[in-house]
Fold this sequence. Notes:
CATH topology of the domain at 62-153 and 234-247 and 257-289: Rossmann fold
Structural class: alpha/beta
CATH class of the domain at 62-153 and 234-247 and 257-289: Alpha Beta
Distance between the termini: 29 Å
Number of strands: 11
Radius of gyration: 20 Å
Helix content: 40-55%
Order of helices and strands: HEHHEHEHEHEHEHEHEHEHEEHHHHH
Strand content: 15-25%
Number of helices: 16
CATH superfamily of the domain at 62-153 and 234-247 and 257-289: HypD, alpha/beta domain 2
Largest sheet: 5 strands, parallel
Amino acid sequence: METDKIVKDIHQLAAEIGREVRLMELCGTHSQTIAQNGIKSLMPKNVKLVSGPGCPVCVTDQSDIDVMAGLALAGIPVAAYGDVLDVPGNLTSLSAARQKGAKVFAVYDVAEVLELKNKYPDIVFFGLGFETTTPPSAWAVRNGIVTYSAHKIFPPAMAALLANKEIRVDGFIDPGHVSAIIGTEAYRQFKIPQVVAGFSGEDVLRAIGMLLAQISEGRKEVENAYPRLVRKDGNPKARKLIDEVFEISNARWRGLGEIKNSGLKIRKKYQKQDAESVHRDLIRKIKKEIKPKPSACRCGLVLQGLIEPKECPLFGRACTPDKPQGACMVSVEGSCNVEYRFSL
């Protein structure tokens, strides 16, 4: 079988390298694939797979959650993707706001928000995620939906990881979905072995083998193991739409802090659809009320690959998918959620 051969090659390459190798996947779906297929159990002892900040819901900053929950509690209808509703902010969560009577709607796509707008003209859409979900948010803005942007650009997060001397990574499994938009060229700025991978177990194993081959041969390249979807220049039409509606800004990432030029804010030409402009005074008031709460949750360290989910003192005890204490346990793409579902 092809899979058996790939695993055999991985063990041979690992033996040739002869030292510990740390490979980080940068996509929550890859984290699920690795756990679901038991890929860590197939690895040689000196090959360690760690999860990075690849879950868009998990890296959404607490202050953005607080703003959206605050708008909802102030009587403004809010629409958001379902997996963000239970993410805790500093003040509360969107689910908790809904339990208090706020109009909070879980949607699957922005077309649903457009339908809701017919009944709730003042509805605000919570736009979040990486380059994959940004084009739909741009479409929403162009169609007159007031949007709060918490969108992130992925490459600056990679730069931040590499700049942190506490984080040791020998290679990246680059995200397939994001890469379909930005293309492989966006990663060439990073002098580290990288492979863009698909989402089957065999796809991920093949990417691991390719990374180990680069490390063994002393190469630091960007290779594309997902050519059926990812191209060198990505999706120019999607990027053009993003550029029309959004401009680059600084952004706060949960666990990583503020990263320069890593966010996207709505351009002034669309300020009538920009929640930060439309509800400027209310959002300013909400932000003044935000007081970070101390927590034993170690989601920030998990997102950086500095600790494993099980090393968090709350994991599996006070923090489970039914009662999440941190963002990494809320989303099905979160490292802690994945670890809980597939290893306990």
